[in-house]
What does this fold into?
Amino acid sequence: MQGLTFITAFYWDRDDESRAWSKRFFELRKRMPTMAHAAIYSAVRHYLRAIEAAGTDEAKVPGDQAFRPWTKGDVRWSNSDRRLCR
It folds into this structure.
């Protein structure tokens, strides 16, 4: 891959949404977020939304009732077409 500098699923300066989230992250941590930070944030946010939607954190709730794709406002999703940035 000639000329390739790096590959990442998240870049803090990708768009207005990622810059806004990264700015809030920087205010707390005094460093810009990495792909790992964004992935962990996204996973925890998804989990907490699933608990809220299911109304419980019991493991007996079927996954299809709890986990649904929440893309709006997720820093790992593209702002323009909602495809997962990998």
Remarks:
- Residues 79-86 have pLDDT under 50 and may be disordered.
